[in-house]
Design goal:
121 residues; mainly alpha; two-stranded parallel sheet; 8 helices; 2 strands; 61% helix; globular
Length: 121
């Protein structure tokens, strides 16, 4: 949360609800710490309140919950890191109203990376 607040000083988020922290801890994070960091940054950017709750996690990052609670009797679908990254990039672009430059700022990447990695929407 600290780095996310540094990148977005106007953010109102002060903390994560303990249930959110537990859900994030249960997620396998195939993209390592950077993927987790990006999810927390996303939550800080899109949530306009002091405490991020499970409803916020469900609304803004549902793939985290689905990764921690696979359907009964079903094996979770394994995806590549590239698929996760593309899904996340697409989601951030959507949250920014299609503004790829702003999305790149939030993601902490060069805008050219978005143009190389994502087909035009």
């Amino acid at each position: 949360r600290g780095r996310a607040r540094e990148r977005n000083p106007a953010a109102k988020v002060a903390r994560l609800d303990p249930a959110v922290t537990a859900a994030l801890a249960r997620c396998p994070w195939p993209g390592n710490v950077r993927e987790l960091e990006n999810v927390v940054t996303r939550l800080v950017v899109v949530c306009a309140k002091e405490v991020i709750e499970m409803a916020d996690l469900q609304a803004h990052v549902p793939q985290v919950l689905s990764a921690t609670t696979p359907a009964a009797g079903a094996a979770p679908r394994l995806t590549t890191l590239r698929e996760h990254e593309n899904e996340y990039i697409t989601w951030v672009i959507e949250q920014c109203g299609g503004n790829k430059t702003r999305a790149a700022e939030i993601l902490g990447i060069d805008p050219s990376t978005i143009h190389r990695r994502k087909p035009p929407a």
